[in-house]
Amino acid sequence: MQLKGVLPAIRNMKDFEEIVKSEHNLFILLETRIAQLNQMVRYAKKYGKTVFVHADLINGLKVDQYGMEYLIRQVKVDGIISTRNNVVSLAKKHKIVAIQRLFALDSLAVQNNIKMIKQSKPDYIEVLPGIIPEVIEEVSRETETPVIAGGLIKTKKQIQEAFDSGAVAITTSSKVLW
């Protein structure tokens, strides 16, 4: 599966209801409770949506081998996002799309994350904040992995700058930018 363009990131039920009935084929579910997750994904699939979840932000779910089995076999998510190597590795083992989130706090954090990413080999890397073109370029070059820009993106100009820096996609919870 190739990710590209602007990918809606959903934080609440109102946005979920809107995105399910929109023309977007794929969205990312950022935050929810484990009790709601299965029903939400099932509902989205009825509308033909591809659903990625941020595994670290599902309240009540322990994302270990058994938590990943639940996400894949019971919930039937199409992909996951996580900051953790072991979660990314489990997703790849189960052959679903794995996106590793990288927080660009400072140059040491970026370098340490690049080392981890070279070990886990995710399908994509989401760089946060996605408004630092130099970091997008560096991560893309150093890892040879497609980069998604996310976080703090508020304008179409910032979206274009991220694409110009090598990002293949953008995640945003801003409905105006979807």
Automatic annotation (TrEMBL):
List, alphabetically, the PANTHER family matched: GLYCEROL UPTAKE OPERON ANTITERMINATOR REGULATORY PROTEIN
> GO MF terms on file?
RNA binding; transcription antitermination factor activity, RNA binding
Q: Does the keyword RNA-binding apply?
A: yes
Q: What is this protein called?
A: Glycerol uptake operon antiterminator regulatory protein
What keywords tag this UniProt record? Glycerol metabolism, RNA-binding, Transcription, Transcription regulation
Claim: GTP-binding is one of the keywords in the record: no
Q: Which residues span the membrane? A: none
What function is annotated for this protein? Regulates expression of the glpD operon. In the presence of glycerol 3-phosphate (G3P) causes antitermination of transcription of glpD at the inverted repeat of the leader region to enhance its transcription. Binds and stabilizes glpD leader mRNA.
> InterPro entries under this entry?
Aldolase_TIM, GlpP
Q: For this chain's UniProt record, which GO biological process terms are given?
A: glycerol metabolic process; positive regulation of DNA-templated transcription
- Signal peptide coordinates: none
SUPFAM superfamilies tied to this protein: GlpP-like
Tell me the Pfam families matching this sequence.
G3P_antiterm
